[in-house]
Amino acid sequence: MCIFCKIIEKSIPATILYEDQTVIAFLDISQTTRGHTLVVPKEHFADIEDIDDNTLAHLIKVVKELSVKIKTKMGANGINILNNNGLAAGQTVEHLHFHIIPRYDEHDGFNCSFIAHQEDLLAIANLINN
Ligand code: 5GP
Ligand code: ZN
């Protein structure tokens, strides 16, 4: 059983912020920034490809509601919402989850950089669509 399934069945502790029949949200143990939260479906789905649309729709609604609440209550200035899928993308726990990372300023502990590369955009679009 994965670590998040253990949290869901309450066999290991977590600091739970929200819970309903399908979703649980708890503070990330790493606290990249103060209030860093994970929103997790109670059923074990490995990643975004694995989850059904209804559960995902509810999950993302909870992500939105909690993001607004956390930003307000923590006095944050922004929020990053992050979902890693696969080892190459940095997924370390193979149970789908969304990170809510409240942001206080550009040097608060979280960094996500987009490095620009020259690419043939049309060739990429054709590859994806055909
Ligand atoms: P990933 O890298 O898979 O997107 O994120 C997994 C996250 O789960 C990490 O940020 C990590 O700190 C968090 N995490 C791993 N184990 C535990 C745990 O036992 N409890 C809590 N609250 N968070 C955990
Ligand atoms: Zn699991």
Tell me the Rg in angstroms: 16 Å
The small molecules bound here are: guanosine-5'-monophosphate, zinc ion
Classify the fold: give the CATH topology: HIT family, subunit A
Return the average pLDDT rounded to an integer.
98
- SS strand fraction: 15-25%
Please write the string of helix (H) and strand (E) elements: HEEEHEEH
Task: State the distance separating the first and last CA atoms.
Answer: 39 Å
Give the CATH level 1 class: Alpha Beta
Helix share bin: 25-40%
- The CATH superfamily bears the name HIT-like
Strand order of the largest sheet: 1-2-3-5-4
Number of domains: 1
Describe the main β-sheet briefly: 5 strands, antiparallel
CATH architecture: 2-Layer Sandwich
Query: Based on DSSP secondary structure assignment, what is the total number of beta strands?
Result: 5
Stretches with pLDDT under 50, minimum 5 residues = none
Describe this structure in words.
This protein has one domain: HIT-like (HIT family, subunit A). The longest helix is centred in the middle third of the chain and has 22 residues. It contains three helices and five strands; from the N terminus they run αβββαββα. Helices cover 28% and strands 19% of the residues. Strand 1 and strand 2 form a beta hairpin. With 130 residues, the chain is α+β, with helices and mostly antiparallel strands. The N and C termini lie far apart (39 Å). The structure holds guanosine-5'-monophosphate and zinc ion. Guanosine-5'-monophosphate binds next to strand 2.
